[in-house]
Design brief:
The protein is an alpha/beta fold and 223 residues long. The protein folds into 2 domains: 114 residues, Response regulator (Rossmann fold, 3-Layer(aba) Sandwich), CATH 3.40.50; 94 residues, Arc Repressor Mutant, subunit A. The protein is built from 8 helices and 11 strands. The strands form 3 sheets. A 5-stranded parallel β-sheet has the order 2-1-3-4-5, with helices on both faces. A hairpin with a 2-residue loop joins strand 6 and strand 7.
């Protein structure tokens, strides 16, 4: 089923969640601090990282940013913080998903399976061009003005999904299903990832040329 790195400072939660993941068929490596987690991921990269936000020393937000510096590993936040500000901040830091404690193990396992299923994009065409934006599904690359753009796996899959339907409006629920693999989910996942993509591929993210919002309907990628 793959390996999971769990970064959680609460001893009881860390032990019980690691055991539950093992029961689901995963190999779990559990640590108590962000510093230990970063060192573990550099030493032996896991397939997925679970991060609590309220950690001693370096907090979960900074931990996610550090992971994202040179790793596109899927990251899931697990936190007792359930207000919109914290959820959005966790996603903007670079997380792919956010689960509020107490964690239902079956739900977590389903999310992890969905992350694993969508970890690779099925290539259909060598290059898709939108003005100065080039998307290369086969190579897993995005170029803007000829320069490489660093995107996460989720951002890349979202961009490829929209690029595969040029000019067509896709609802948030459609994108949740096709990109995240969720029949039902939090639409803020889509909004935050779209915002992150705009910052990377648009000259003016506040006035996007390609990745645009169609009010009340969803998003589309236009040439």
């Amino acid at each position: 089923m793959g390996t999971v790195l769990l970064i959680e400072d609460d001893d009881r939660i860390r032990l019980s969640l690691a055991m539950a993941l093992e029961d689901e068929g995963y190999t779990a490596h559990a640590v108590a601090t962000a510093e230990e987690g970063l060192a573990a991921q550099r030493r032996q990269p896991a397939d997925t990282v679970l991060v609590d936000l309220m950690l001693p020393g370096m907090d979960g937000f900074q931990c996610i940013r550090e992971l994202r510096r040179d790793d596109d590993v899927p990251i899931v936040v697990i936190s007792a913080r359930d207000d919109t500000h914290d959820i959005v901040a966790g996603l903007e830091a670079g997380a792919d998903d956010y689960i509020v404690k107490p964690v239902a193990v079956k739900e977590l396992a389903a999310r992890l399976r969905a992350l694993r299923r969508r970890s690779r994009v099925e290539p259909q065409i060598s290059t898709i061009t939108f003005g100065e934006l080039d998307i290369r599904p086969e190579a897993g690359e995005v170029l803007c003005g000829g320069r490489p753009v660093a995107v996460t796996r989720t951002e890349f899959r979202l961009l490829c999904e929209l690029a595969g339907h040029p000019g067509q409006v896709m609802s948030r629920q459609q994108l949740l299903q096709r990109v995240w693999g969720y029949e039902v989910g939090d639409e803020r996942l889509v909004d935050v990832h779209v915002g992150r993509l705009r910052q990377k591929i648009e000259p003016d993210s506040g006035n996007p040329r390609h990745l645009v919002t169609v009010r009340g309907l969803g998003y589309k990628l236009r040439r």
